[in-house]
Amino acid sequence: MSKKMANILIVDDEVTSIEVMRCLLETNVNTQVAETGQKALELLEKNDFDLVLLDVDLLANSTPKCTTL
């Protein structure tokens, strides 16, 4: 029986941070990336994520709605 792969959304605007997270999570997970809060909201409306990793520094430049979903 195969395990379901976790579906993780990474919300960060720094490429280095994104790559580090992807390397740490590379086994048995699917990752998608959003560089802005608005893009994150769009992806959240269309996909079912098991986990969202959100850069809190990005919130200052984003919509507060990202943290209420």
Automatic annotation (TrEMBL):
Keywords: Phosphoprotein. Pfam families: Response_reg (PF00072). Residues 7-69 form the Response regulatory domain. The keyword tRNA-binding does not apply. The modification 4-aspartylphosphate is found at residue 55. One of its GO terms (biological process) is phosphorelay signal transduction system. This is Response regulator receiver domain-containing protein.
